[in-house]
Hints:
The chain is an alpha/beta fold. The protein has 16 helices and 14 strands. The N and C termini lie far apart (100 Å).
Amino acid sequence: MKKRLWPLLGGVLIFFLLSGICMAEQNIVDAMDRTIAIPSKVERVICSGPGCLRLLTYLQAQDRIVGVDDMETRRSRFDARPYALAHPEFKEYPEFGSFRGHDNPEQILVLDPQPQVIFKTFAALGHDPIELSEKTGIPVIVLNYGDLGANRDQLFQALRIMGKALGQDERAENVIAFFEEAIDDLHQRTYDIPGEKRPSCFVGGIASKGPHGYQSTEPGYPPLAFIHADNVAYDTGLKGKALLHSSVAKEKIVEWDPDILFLDLSTLQMGDKVGGLHELGTDPAYQSLKAVQQGKVYGVLPYNWYSGNYGSILANAYYMGKLLYPDRFEDVDPRVKADDIYGYLIGKGVFGIMDQSFQGLAFQPIPLN
Length: 369
């Protein structure tokens, strides 16, 4: 009798053990439409790729990282990543690879403690996510970083996927609502302004995988789009990638002769004798522009810095709205608003830190003489 009971009891024990294992897992469907099994409670992670750690910080889960890529450990005079400025402790973590998703499986395997999950944005960059999972034995969840424009759904999906994996579903929905409410607020303040009351604008010096001169712009520049501004570089026929980074002929800028010029301060990285600021102050072509002659050149925060910094996009939109349509933004102090945005998203207002890094030129007229 006892001999017959032992196999039965052993089977029951194995059943319960396996049931416990199943109960301790959850399934996540990532941006590649793969179903991935991960622990039901994820407490240790790493974030690979541009913007990935930013999203984790938005979800208030940055204390779960066990390592960072080398973008976080670099020390530079310039840094326009609010999430990193708000959390300087990221610099002290061990590295698991190089920036832009160039992960090192050997470095990951010696992290102590080990991550339970790897989140990865921009899967086509750097290490292949499937190969990375095979080499490390750690599930890799791919996220589409998206944007606040045409690819807003991708961003919101990324926040929801990450939120579900971390048990931060409610925070993910709150962040999504925060973005939607801010964009709607900007729309409601500006959508009905007559065309003749919209000053023409151009924003130059925009970063794209590094700093550029003043001819660098974005036809679909999100802050101007959110406030329905007259961006002279925009054309209604432009779609998709054509709305992103482009270089405009200097002659075209002179031909447009916009009422207002904005300078993306990321161009200051190029140095004192080059870059957008130097060009505006010394180039005869730019000197002929009425905005330069009338002192209507204004500094805005860089937002393309290890992918899009969504808080800075919104902060710039409120500043530009205040400048272009002061009667519609009477209740807004752009600097205070910027820190309110950063405080909600990353836990700390960092406008002053960024402004100091960029020569105190953010959200004010730029002296060119």
